[in-house]
Each structure stands twice: as C-alpha cells, then as structure tokens.
Amino acid sequence: MSKPVVTRFAPSPTGFLHIGGGRTALFNWLYARHTGGKMLLRIEDTDRERSTEAAIGAIIDGLKWLGLDWEGETVFQFARAPRHREVVEEMLAAGKAYRCYCTPAELDAMREKARAEGRSPRYDGTWRDRDPSEAPPGVKPAIRIKAPLEGETVIEDQVQGRVVIPNKDLDDLVLLRSDGNPTYMLSVVVDDHDMGVTHIIRGDDHLTNAARQMIIYAAMGWDVPIMAHIPLIHGPDGAKLSKRHGALGVDAYRAMGYLPEAMRNYLVRLGWGHGDEEIMSTEQMVEWFDIIDVGRSASRFDFAKLESLNGHYIRTMDDARLLALFIETLPHLPGGSVMAELLDQAKIAQLAMALPGLKERAKTLVELKDGAAFIFAIRPLVPDEKAAAILDADARALLGRLHELLSETAWTIEATEAAVKAFAEAEGLKLGKVAQPLRAALTGRSTSPGIFDVLMTLGREESLGRIADQAV
Hints:
Rossmann fold; 4 domains; 12 strands; 20 helices; mainly alpha; 49% helix
C-alpha cells in the first residue's frame, strides 16, 4: 500500500510571496487535495541576514489570501539546525562525510585554476582522503559529503522526464560551514525526510540542486521523494519574469483589485490545463489536477488575459461574496483606505444596492471602487473635468426645474424613471440630454451605473441635495 501523499511549500522569507511562488504553492496544494494527501508549510529562514519577520508575515498573508491552507504547524528551518548537525555527525561517523580545512584563499585559487584549464569551478577533493592529523592549526573545518566519483545520478522527474547528470560534474558539497551552520542543501533534505514529504514540487531552477540532494539521501540511506520540477513563469517578452515586468508580489495583485478565485484560476492555467477549459472552479481544479500533466515549457504571464478572467469572476460572482471581498480588500486598494474609514452600515447597504450595476462595468476591484466613489462623495461634489463641461448654464437651469419635479415624486425606481422621462418629453429633449446633467450632479462624473439605480442608491434626501447643489 502506497504512502499518503505529502507535499510541501518551502519559501525563503527574503521578500514578498512572488507570483511564481504562489503558483508553486497552488500546484502543491492542488496535488495534495487531488490525491487525498496534505500540504505542509516550511519557512526556509536559514539566511539570517535576509530573512525578516515582515517577509514571513507577507508570505503567510499571501497564501491565506489565495485560499491555500496547510496542515499542522508551520516549520521554521533555522530552528531545526541542531537536528541538521546531528545528521552530519552520523555521516562523519559512517565515513560518508569528511572535514575540509581549505582556507578561502585556497578555494579561490582552486576555482581560478579550474577556469584557466577550461573546467567548471568545483572543489577538487583536497581533504577527501587526507588524515585529519594533517589539519593546519587554528583553521575551523567545513564538513563536506563524499560524492560518488563515477557513474551518474538519475532523476526520474514527473515533469522534466528522465534527467541524467554525470557524477563527475557534482563535487563534494559543503554540509556544514566552518562556523558550524548547516547549508541550504543539507537542511532541505533533512527537513523533507523528517516531515515525511513524498512529493517535491518546485521550480525547475532547483533541478541541479536535486541531483546534489539525492547524494545526501543516498548517504543516509533514505528514500528519495518523487520530484516534479515545474517550468518558471516568463514575462510577455519571453524572458524570466522579473521586476521590470511589473508587479510581482501576491499582495500587489490584491492591491490591483484581482480576486483570489480569479488568481487561482489564472495561475493554474500557467503550465497546466484540462482540455479547452479556461474557467474552472476550485473544486474542478482539485478533481482534474495531476502533476504529470504539467508541461515542460515556460508559460507567459499575460495581464490582459488575467484582467479579462477577473472581469468574468466579478460579473458572475454571488453579490454577497463579492461585497464581502470588496469590503475586505478596500483598505489595500489605491485610495481605498479613505473609503474604508467612511464605511458604516448605511454605506454597506448602499454598496449592496449598487453592486449589480457596478459589477457589470468593472474588470477589477479598483474599477469597482472607482464606480462606487459616488456613494462616498461628500457634498457639495466637485465635478471632474468631463462632468463640469456637462454642467453648463443651460444644464444647471434644467436641473433646477427637474429638482422641483423630483421633490414631489414617489421615491421608487419606476416612479422616478417615469417622472424623468415625462420631464424630458415636456422639455422637448431626448432622455440622454436630461440623464447626463443629472448624472454629473449626482456622481460628479460623466459615467456611472444606471441613473435611476444611482437615485435609489443615494436615496431621496441625498439625491435632491446633490441636484440642488448644482442647480440654478
């Protein structure tokens, strides 16, 4: 009987949760869910100079926003350093590792010599078989593994296929530095083994690391997890996704107004697909996803496609869920913190009323926020440039007459619509010629949801007040 699947997401907390990391986490999460297994979270904080509490917080916040949960407590790699050192002691005792007393200057000279001879710079095994009694005084040794000198290391990768690396290209990697601190290579292997990880799903930039890590597994006599190295995400120009392509952190996509559901759907399609399905629920992703179906070639990040998909999710999402997401995200949106401070039960009720009209026009929550700005506007409104152009002397006079009529009209969508249409007819105008100045007075803009929806959202008192402010 095969073991239950255990995947892990293991970011380094040296910055925000990169969007590529978000996709790696998603693939681990989906595969665990698909197989009835579990995903673990490990923070690889061994780089003490670059690891920060703020970055750890950003990673956890990003995962939670994406809706990706994990089993059990978060594991912090640095705290496990004593266990990593214990494993090295076992390797030393078994003759699988050795103490290396090379100084930094000697290592530099070794690398320079290799380059001069056209070889790749690597450790030449100087201390591999020397007697420790020859150790120079006062030099603290690093501990290196005894890598195989002949043959090849084979990775049967679930995505990349069979990868063969000649052992002559793998040197005796350092397990413990001379200051006694474990290296990343060692820590990852020990942690994956101790955490019971069965499947390692990570970026293909770790493929060469996999061969080196397999040497550690072999030295300890441990089972090697099944590996799947997924291709990296590229920018629209085909180059590896980087800062010059724009926003990279998951938190930045939230601030741009993307929905977590849309991000999950978009990210899962970067390198994996199910037939021609473009839009899929999380339940469908879980049902269909298999790591062996991930392609080998890099995917290109396409903002236009993401925005289009996000717009679909906004239009089709349940209003109650969309309203809750909007309110939750508002403080993160540009200029949204001011609106968030003004939120009360009355404003929430107005948002709920306006949402069906607002969401038809919005591709992001930023656009939804901009569309809802009229609800938060404080009298007297300052019209924008286009609205100000609409509100000329004739329009203001017309608003004065319309204000008088609406003051005596029952405040229902049917009654206000009938009254405005009758007013336009009596004035000898098309409805648009009345609706445009009315919209400019009510919202301070030239575009908005349906004008009668705006009247209902604002209510009688606020609507009449705004019209009066602009009327003569």
